[in-house]
Amino acid sequence: MHHDHSRWGPTDQIGAANLLTAETRLNALGLVRKGRIYDVSHEIDAGAPYMPPNQTPFLLSIWASWKDSIKRRRKIGATNDAGSNVERAEMTMHVGTHIDALGHFSIGDHLYNGLPAADVVTDWGLDRLGIEHMPPLVTRGVLLDVSGLDGGAHLNPGRVVTPDDLARAADRAEVALRPGDVVLIRTGWGRYFGVDNHRYLEGEPGIDVPAARWLTRQDVVAIGCDNMAVEVLPNPDRTLMMPVHQHVLAEAGVHLIENLALEELARDRLSQFCFILLATKYKGATGCPVRPIAMA
Amino acid sequence: MHHDHSRWGPTDQIGAANLLTAETRLNALGLVRKGRIYDVSHEIDAGAPYMPPNQTPFLLSIWASWKDSIKRRRKIGATNDAGSNVERAEMTMHVGTHIDALGHFSIGDHLYNGLPAADVVTDWGLDRLGIEHMPPLVTRGVLLDVSGLDGGAHLNPGRVVTPDDLARAADRAEVALRPGDVVLIRTGWGRYFGVDNHRYLEGEPGIDVPAARWLTRQDVVAIGCDNMAVEVLPNPDRTLMMPVHQHVLAEAGVHLIENLALEELARDRLSQFCFILLATKYKGATGCPVRPIAMA
Amino acid sequence: MHHDHSRWGPTDQIGAANLLTAETRLNALGLVRKGRIYDVSHEIDAGAPYMPPNQTPFLLSIWASWKDSIKRRRKIGATNDAGSNVERAEMTMHVGTHIDALGHFSIGDHLYNGLPAADVVTDWGLDRLGIEHMPPLVTRGVLLDVSGLDGGAHLNPGRVVTPDDLARAADRAEVALRPGDVVLIRTGWGRYFGVDNHRYLEGEPGIDVPAARWLTRQDVVAIGCDNMAVEVLPNPDRTLMMPVHQHVLAEAGVHLIENLALEELARDRLSQFCFILLATKYKGATGCPVRPIAMA
Amino acid sequence: MHHDHSRWGPTDQIGAANLLTAETRLNALGLVRKGRIYDVSHEIDAGAPYMPPNQTPFLLSIWASWKDSIKRRRKIGATNDAGSNVERAEMTMHVGTHIDALGHFSIGDHLYNGLPAADVVTDWGLDRLGIEHMPPLVTRGVLLDVSGLDGGAHLNPGRVVTPDDLARAADRAEVALRPGDVVLIRTGWGRYFGVDNHRYLEGEPGIDVPAARWLTRQDVVAIGCDNMAVEVLPNPDRTLMMPVHQHVLAEAGVHLIENLALEELARDRLSQFCFILLATKYKGATGCPVRPIAMA
Questions:
Q1: How far apart are CA B4 and CA C269, in angstroms?
Q2: Which chains touch A (3 or more CB pairs under 8 A)?
Q3: Considering only CB atoms, which chain C residues are within 8 Å of D287?
Q4: Are strands D222-225 and D272-277 parallel, antiparallel or unpaired?
Q5: What is the pLDDT, as a whole number, of residue B5?
Q6: Which of C148, C139, C206, C209 is nearest to C173 (CA)?
Q7: pLDDT value for C5
Q8: Rounded CA gap, D36 and C147, in Å?
Q9: Least packed by Cβ within 10 Å: which of A152, B73, B179, C278?
C-alpha cells in the first residue's frame, strides 16, 4: 500500500481531495474553449435502479399542492392566490448519478484514515467522513473509454477492466494522468440504466483492485463509471465483495462516482475536459445524488 | 408585464435560462483569476429551518451499517469484511440552500408559461417545469450587498429592499447587470440560519415585487438571497402572500435560490464572480438542495 | 341499488357500521366458549407484497439505538444507562393485513354518501371518511370457505366467487347471515402471501360485484378475504377495474379487510365466532394495518 | 428483584404475557354486561406530541389521489372511473396511543431476558422481542384514578405516584389486582395531549420505580397511563432517566401503554372492565400505535 492513512494527517477527512489546488482548478478551466456543457448525469425518479437491501427505493410525491395551499392561504387572509407545489421525498443518497463519501465503506471495523466505525457511524449519520466534507470538484476530467474492447458496444458483466486496458485507453486518448484528475471510465454498460434495470443490476463490467490501485497510485481524486458500483460485479473471486470500494474509499481516500451518463462525451470523442461536481452538503451523509458536468 | 408567457414559445420550460449561452459561460469563466472557490451554501441536517406546513422536517438515519452489512455479506460467503454505511433520508426538496423550480408556484390555477396546474401537478411530482429542466448554471454572479443600509449588520424582518436600494448597491459595487446574470442579495439575515431558527423564520428582510421586477426586467436568470424566501416577510400588504414567488417563478420564468451563505463573499468584497450551480435532476421535483459556488 | 347514500343521513361517515349495537356485540361475545384466540393477520415487514403504483414499499429501520441513546443520555448526566431502541417506518397504510376506510375509493368524482372527492381529499389525507371514524368491531364473524370448490387447495386467479358459491358455503357451515356480521371469505390464495409474492399479485380469485351485492344486501358491516383486494383479479370484464371496491366502500358503506390469514380458522372448521378488529385512528388515513382476531 | 430473567425460560419473548390464559380471557369477557365500548385512544395526526430526538414527527400525505388514479386507469383501458385514495406515512411507532415492545429499552447492553442488544438490534429492527410477539390482550383492565390526589383536576409534572397512592386508589375502587390484569393509571395529565403539546411534554406526573415494582410484583401484564411515558418526568433523581422503562420492560417483561385517553372511563366511574388491545404485527418493531378499548 502506497497510500498510508497518515498521508494527510490523523484528522484528515478528504483524502486525495487534498491534491486540489488553485492551480489544478485554473488548469481545468483552461480546457474550456467553446463554453459547451456536457451533462453526465441521469434523471432521478422512482424508476432509478437500486440494489437491495443496502440501497432502497426512491419515492417522491406532492406534499403540498397549489390548490390546497391556495385554500389554506385564503383562510388566513390572502387574496393573491399564490399556490405552492412542494414534494416530500424518501430516498437513499445512493440513487441515480451519485458520489460516495469516504465514510461509505469500511475495511472490517475501520474507515478511511483508520477511524473506528463504531465511533464514527451514529444513529443519524457519520460523525466524520460525511459528504459535507467533500470539496467542490472543479478539476480536469479524463475519459477512458474501454467500451469497445471486446468488439461490441459495451463490455459485459464480470468483465474485468485491467490496468493495461486503462493504460491503453489513455494512450489512445493521448492523455497522461496527473494528480488531481477525475477519471471517468466508460464501459458502455450505462445504456441499460433506467431502461432495463434488471439487466443493469444483474452484474456489470468494471475495474478490479489492480486497476483501482493503478489509478489511485497516480493520485486521481475521484473515479467515475457508467455503472452502479464502478467495480466489476460479480468479483472474479467470489469470496470478495466490493473490494474496490474498500481500496478506493477507505484505503486511498479517493471518491467514487456512480451511474454516470457518458454517451455524449464519447460521441464527441472528448478525452479531457473541465469536470465540475458539487456535492450537496447533507451533514453526515454517506454520499449524495449529484449533477456533474463536463465543460469543453 | 414585460415578460409575456410566450417569449420563449408555448413549450418552453426554462424561462430566462434561455439566455444562457456559450458566450455568457465563457465570460463568466473569464472572471476566474485566482482559482479560488467560495462555498455559498449551508450544511443540511435535522436542524435546518423549515416553514410548516408546506415545508417539512429533514430526517436522516443510518439504514445499513458497516457492522450489519459485514454480517450479511459473511452469510453469503464474503471474506473481506466490506462494511457499507448507507442512510435513508426523508425530506422536502426545499431544505437548506436550495433552488426553486419554475413549477414551484402558481398564480391561481396557472403555472409558468400559462400551464394549467391541474394538468402539470400530478401525484408524483410535476409533469412539466420540474427541476430536472433547469440547465447547469455557469454564469456571472453579482453580489448586491444591502445588509448595512439601516446602519446595522443586517436588515430586519419586514424591511423592503427597494429597486433603488439594489441600484445603489450595484453602483457602489461598480457593476451593471447583464442578461444571464445571477444576482445574489445579501441582507445579513443569513447569520441566523441554523443558529436561531425561531428568529430566522419569524420574518425576514427581502425584496418586494417592484425590486423583483427591476431585476427580471434586466434579464437575470436567477435571484438568490441569504434568507428563506428571497422576498420580504411579512409582505407590507398583509393580504399578499409570496407575491415575489409568483412574479419571479410563474411570470418571469426566473429561478429563486434561497438560504444562501454569503458572508465570505462579502468579507472579501467580491461583487462579481463566476457562479456555478448544478441542480440535481430529481424528475418532477419543485426544487432541490444545492451547493452553489462562486469562483474568483 | 338498495343502499342509497342517504340511508344514514347526509353527514354519515361510517355506513353499515351504524348497524353495530350493544346487542350485536353481546351476541358476538356469547359465541366465546373456550376463550381461544385465532390470530387472522400476517406479520408486516419489508417482504410484504404490494401492488405498485398505488401501493408502496414498507420500510422500517432503527432510528435510535440503545447504544447511541445511552451515549446521549450520559452526556446530559444520566447514570443508569437506559438504552432506547426506536424505529422509523415509511409505509402505505394498505400493507399486510389491513382495512380500507370508506374514503379509499371513489366512483368517478364522488365518495361514499355522495361526498365530492375534490373537497374531501386534501394534501394530508381525508377530511371526512378517514379510518379514524371506523368504530371498533366486536361482532359476529362468519367464515365462508370456498377454497375447495374447484377441487384443489385454493381457487385460482380470475376465478369469480359467485353469490351461489357463497350461499352454498353458508349452508354447509349452517350459518345464516345477519345484519352486523363480518364475512370472511377463504379462497386459499392466502398461502402465497409473503411466500411467493410474485404469484400472489399476478391475479387472485375473489368475488365480483354480484357476490358483493349479495353480501351488502344482507347488511354485513365488513367483508374480508385471504387475498390482496377481496375482489377477483383481473375482472372478467377487462374494462372494469376494482368495481367491487366501488360498490362495497363507496356505494354500500361497507368496509373491506384484506390479506387475512385464515388457515387456522379453516383447520378448526370454525364457521362463526366473535370477530374483533380495532382500526388505529390515523386521522384522515384511507385505511390502516390491523391485527384482527377471532375468538371462540 | 423478584422477576428473574429465567422465569419463563431463556427463549421467552413475551414476559408477563405468559400469564394470559383462556381463563383470564373468559373472566374478562364476563365483565361485559351492557356491550358498551369505551375508546381509550387519541387520534394520530401531524399534531401528535413527540419527544425528540428519539421520537420523530408523524407525517402523512396523499400518495395516490382519486383523480390521478382514474386517469392512470383510463389509460390502460378502464371505463368505470374507480379512483383510489392512498397515503404514504412516515412515522415513529411511538406516536399517539401506543404500546412499547419488550425490546424497546435496555439496561446497559442487555434487553429483556438478558438478551444482548448488540445481537438483537439490527439495522432493520429487533431480531427478537419485537412487537409482533405481543399476544392479543383480552383481559381484565383496572382503572386506578389518582388524578385528584392533590386536590386539582390532575397531578403535576414531577409528582411521583407512589405504591400507597395506587393501593389506596385500588381500595377506593374496591378492586384487588390479579395476575394477568392490565392496570391503567389516570393522572389527569392526558387533557393536554394534542391540546397543549408544549405543556404535555415539559414533564409529567407518573409512577417511579417503587410503584412500578408494586405493580409488576402483582403480575400485571401491562401498565398504561394518560401521559407520554407512564413514569414521572423528570425523575426525582436527576441522574436517572427512564428507570421505570428499564424495570418494567427489560426486567419484568411487562408492557407499557402510553398516551391513553381515560376521561370517559373516569366519568363513568368504571374501575374494572374487559380491556382489549391488538398490537399490529410490525415485524421487529419496538412498539406500535394501537386503539385499545374497554368494554363494560
A1: 73
A2: B, C, D
A3: 86
A4: unpaired
A5: 63
A6: C148
A7: 63
A8: 36
A9: A152
Integer Cα distance of D166 and D214 in angstroms: 9
Q: Which residues of B271-282 are buried (b: 16+ CB within 10 A; e: fewer)?
A: bbbbbbbbbbbb
CB contact under 8 A, B123 and A62: yes
Residue positions counted in chain A: 296
Q: What is the pLDDT of residue D65?
A: 98
3-state secondary structure of C74: helix
Cell numbers at C217, concatenated: 344486501
**Cβ distance of A123 and C64 shorter than 8 Å:** yes
pLDDT tens digits along D39-76 = 999 999 999 999 999 999 999 999 999 999 999 999 99
How many CB atoms are located within 10 Å of the residue B236 CB?
A: 10
Minimum CA–CA partner of D65 in chain B? B123
Going by C-beta distance under 8 Å and a sequence separation of 6 or more, which residues neighbour residue A84?
A64, A66, A69, B54, B104, B105, B106, B242, B245
Residue type for position B108: G
Rounded to whole angstroms, the Cα distance separating C92 from B171 reads: 56
Which pLDDT score is estimated for A2?
A: 45
Note the pLDDT tens digit of each residue in B157-172. Answer: 999 999 999 999 999 9
Q: Any long-range contacts for C201-204 (C-beta under 8 Å, 24+ apart)?
A: C201/C49, C201/C51, C201/C228, C202/C157, C203/C157, C203/C158, C203/C233, C203/C234, C204/C157, C204/C228, C204/C229, C204/C232, C204/C233
> Model confidence over D245-295: pLDDT tens digits?
999 999 999 999 999 999 999 999 999 999 999 999 999 999 999 999 999
Question: What pairs with residue D273 in β-bridges?
Answer: D141
User: What's the gap in Å between the CA of B68 and the closest CA on chain D?
Assistant: 7
Residues paired with residue B256 on neighbouring β-strands, in sequence order: B100, B223
Mind telling me how many Å the CA of B119 is from chain D's nearest CA?
A: 10
Task: Find residue D138's DSSP bridge partners.
Answer: D276
Positive or negative torsion for Cα B7, B8, B12, B17: negative
* Residue keyed to cell 453602483: B171
B121-122 and B105-107 beta bridge pairing = unpaired
How confident is the model at residue A144, as a pLDDT? 98
Report the amino acid identity of residue A13. Answer: Q
- Calpha distance D242→D244 (Å, rounded): 5
CB within 8 Å: B61 and C59 = no
Give the residue, A133 or B5, on which the prediction is more confident: A133
In C136-259, the DSSP E strands lie at 137-145, 160-161, 182-186, 206-207, 222-225, 255-258
Consecutive 10-residue runs of chain B (296 residues): their mean pLDDT?
69 97 98 98 97 97 98 97 98 98 98 97 98 98 98 98 98 97 98 98 98 98 98 98 98 98 97 98 98 98
- For an interface test with C, give the residue of D241, D258, D276, D286 to mutate (most C CBs within 10 A): D241
**What's the start-to-end Cα distance of chain B, in Å?**
35
Q: Which three cell numbers stand for residue D242?
A: 427512564
Q: Please give the sequence-ordered ranges of beta strands (E in DSSP) within A74-181, or none if there are none.
A: 82-84, 86-92, 98-100, 105-107, 121-122, 125-126, 137-145, 160-161
Q: What is the mean pLDDT of residues A127-145?
A: 98
> Residue B131 is placed in which grid cell?
427541476
Task: Provide, as residue numbers in chain C, all residues whose Cβ is less than 8 Å from the Cβ of D242.
Answer: 80, 82, 84
Task: Compute the half-sphere exposure of residue B206: CA atoms within 13 Å on the CB side of its CA.
Answer: 32
Cα-based torsion angle of the residue sequence D140, D141, D144, D147 in order, rounded to the nearest 10 degrees: -170
- Report the b/e string of D115-154 with b at 16+ CB within 10 A: bebeebbbbbbbebbbbbbbbbbbbbbbbbbbbebeeeeb
Which residues of chain D have a Cβ shorter than 8 Å from any chain A Cβ?
53, 59, 61-63, 88, 90, 124
- pTM metric for this prediction: 0.97
Distance separating alpha carbons of residues A233 and A240, to the nearest angstrom: 10
Mean confidence (pLDDT) of chain A? 97
Half-sphere exposure of B287 (CA within 13 A, CB side): 30
